[in-house]
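Q: Protein A?
A:
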Amino acid sequence: MRHRGLPVLAGAVILSLLAGSAHADLGKCQKGLEKNGDKLRGSIWKTLAKCKDGYQSAVAKAEPLNVKAGPSCEANLQKVVNFGNPVSAMAKAKAALDKLTTLGTCTDQDLVVLGYLPEGIFGDHWARWLMLASLKAAYESQISFVGATANIFQALETNGCPICANLGRPPCLRASCPLLAGDGVAPLAASEAEAKVLDASTTLFVPISGELITEGCQWPGLTTNEIATVGGPGNALNPSPILGQTACSITIRSQGFTNCGAGGIANTNVSVCQDSDLSDGNQCSTGLCLVNPDANTGGACFNFTTAAGTPGNSVAMSTTQIRIVAPGQVGLDGVACTADDTAPPTPPNTIVVTTGSAQATIMDAGDVPGPDVSSGPFVGAAGPGCAQLSSGNLTGLTLVGAFPGADTVGGPLGDTITATRLQCQ
């Protein structure tokens, strides 16, 4: 893991970038991520297919697997997925991704906007995560096409393909936990949201129920004493009532890591600030700041504080869409949070969730100079060790996140601050 010029203060690492931090061409960064990620995915997919086809060919000819199918699969996989092989497709992909940041094609600001952990704080975790996402996409599409995929690699493992041992069990597995619902009153507890609405002048507590779904991935060389969270779209959280309306939450994507021991992802605290009125200047002037959404509203600024990781601590960038549906916007089915709702879509927000602490602040709430409102800090809790996580046990894991919404939510709620706490039973 690489950290570049990070100041150490009392055992913690503090990110303190200027609001005017460099912002590369976001389109070029995005294209670089897409190009290298999909190139690796394609290489892995083709190699997995060759291994499976070789297996079926050997079976059809009654040829022992250790004659050709196993050794051939081993040789091909070594060229593609052995990260320790400097000429493998994985190693080449990593080198190409590293160039995106060293050459300035992708800045930390770009990475956050696109849903990645910033390199200035978390080193090359973002790049290794993208490679794991490529591996996950290739492997899961193969399983979709051929249900016996894992069985085939188990058979090849003992017949000349040692590296197949990493593919006989899917490298990425989903796990879920039922959430312990909160009571809807202060203080924030169990699984609950604190919503400061109506220009952050009114505080509501909303119980959260449903399930927390995680997708953990591991691969030699890409995860060292940690499990990567590679999450896709989901709506496992139940709708929540708020001021006579319904809040609908959809997870678009999650990118993060859980610590398993020495060298794993750091313990992370995060504070997010946003200025709702720039007429008196931008008062959120430190941290990793996103571009201003308009001339009167400041971009959200993220400040991270990290310390040495401990087993079970987690941090992730969760891209989430929250839609507020009024009674007259439920569509023909009469049910909120379904595809026919007529409520205008809100832009998905990137929310940092952590087992550390999270807080958020709106400066100049209500688009007038003066009122400043904060929420938090709220503290999460590390989950079980990685052995338990790998077996699907998430008991005790508590994630917290907080984010400001200055002039972005729309509708009657005005400026908002939302803090969430998700606790596994």
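Q: Protein B?
A:
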Amino acid sequence: MSKQRIMGLFSDFEQAFAAIVDIRSNKIPGVSVDDVTLKSPIEHPEIEEVLGERPAHVPKFTLMGAAFGITFGFTMLASAQATFLVQPQGGKPVVPLPSNIVLTYEMLILFGVLFTLASFLIGARMLRRRDTFYSEKVSLDQVGVLLEVDERNAQAVKSLFQKHKAVEIRDEVVR
């Protein structure tokens, strides 16, 4: 069964939010609020109440980057210091911890920042091609609600958008 992408353009946020609330209350079986993408010309803080909590993966990648930075930093420093076949003189250790802790901390921050940047770019989908299914009216003054649904639910979604006074409804078959 093929999928369709349907975009409903609304003239104000209340109509778009009402359509999303109906989707959230399972008025259309097989369509959930996780399938909804909202496109808006401005930020709207109360959208989180309507859409619900979305998963945030960036802090997990930051923690992994920091753990990798500690492990890699200390291992790299200790292996570089221990590869020299030098006899410790005057009771000095081969791998001195006080100076390595500072450099390990710097590697923790470096890799934490790099993993955060990479996870943001990937999670925000900044490195992929632009979506071809777009309306210029979203950039001006309208709110777009985009859904990707099965073919059997497409007519129900269109009628839901019409019920909430969508200005325009566009659809596209996904290949």
